[in-house]
Design a protein that fits this description.
Layout lengths: L2 H20 L2 E14 L8 H6 L1 E12 L9 H5 E15 L3 H4 L5 H8 E16 L5 H5 L5 E20 L28 E19 L2 E12 L22 E12 L3
Antiparallel strand pairs: 1-2, 1-8, 2-3, 3-4, 4-5, 5-6, 6-7, 7-8
Length: 263
């Protein structure tokens, strides 16, 4: 296991142990849903790109709930939770947009159309949830109620990406557009089949629904920005191709179930 991932896992385990010792409330849950990877595949702000480069994600989560009965009630304990996540997502990628759909259907469009990649990401991290409109105790005692929230956090991510072309060897100029054959960011080309560890920042908005006394449902939209542009396996030289200026980022649409632990 890589050093950053090990450190993060050890820290989260230590926090959970400390929480148990302090008698704070804890919750566990699962979530799943579609994810869209915004990358160098496809055209920016293009509907077909956003829909076509959509994969699937799943995760488990653990909450530290500060509003336990043995804690003094204040604004922080009644409106904030700390959540840790272990998640996995996989997305297949293709080029979409005007450069693929151009008429007449030229060689450049054919080369783009036949490029493909897959990206698998395992993430481990934490975020702080803030529920501004309803106290946590009031929500817990009101079956059928809704509690919107916002969240900020971070993750350590292990990614594995594979890239190729249906036309053959992606290293050849008659298979891959020259834009992607130029060296980039220490790689011999603007594409790379590789694995690595990167950091990401997360921001989310969502809502909890009180299903029973001991369980909630959740819907969340989470934005995740990576500190790398190689998550999708594609990163044309930014000094030459100025349009490729942003790192890869991902949007999650999560549906989840949360259960309250009793200890």
């Amino acid at each position: 296991m890589s050093k950053p991932l090990f450190i993060t896992l050890f820290a989260l385990f230590g926090i959970t142990t400390a929480v148990s010792a302090q008698g704070l409330a804890q919750e566990i849950g699962i979530y799943a849903g579609p994810v869209t990877l915004q990358s160098d595949f496809g055209e920016r702000n293009n509907f077909d790109t956003n829909v076509g480069n959509t994969g699937f994600g799943i995760g488990i989560m653990h909450f530290i709930n500060f509003s336990a009965n043995n804690n003094r009630e204040n604004y922080f304990t009644e409106h904030f939770k700390v959540r840790s996540d272990l998640s996995y997502s996989r997305t297949t990628l293709k080029h979409f947009g005007q450069w693929v759909e151009r008429k007449p259907n030229g060689i450049f469009a054919q080369l783009l159309k036949n490029m493909h990649a897959s990206s698998s990401i395992v993430g481990l991290g934490a975020q702080v949830e803030f529920s501004p409109f309803m106290k946590i105790h009031d929500f817990e005692n009101s079956v059928g109620s809704f509690s919107p929230y916002g969240a900020l956090g971070f993750q350590v991510n292990y990614y594995s990406t594979k890239i190729g072309s249906h036309l053959g060897d992606i290293n050849l100029p008659d298979v891959t557009p020259g834009k992607y054959l130029t060296s980039s960011d220490g790689r011999p080309h603007g594409f790379s089949t590789e694995t690595g560890v990167v950091l990401s920042a997360t921001a989310a908005v969502g809502v909890h629904y009180k299903l029973t006394d001991m369980s909630d449902l959740m819907f969340e939209t989470r934005f995740q920005m990576y500190n790398s542009d190689w998550i999708d396996g594609l990163n044309p030289n930014k000094d030459i191709y100025k349009e490729n200026k942003s790192n890869d980022w991902q949007v999650w649409f999560n549906f989840g179930y949360i259960y309250y632990l009793e200890f």
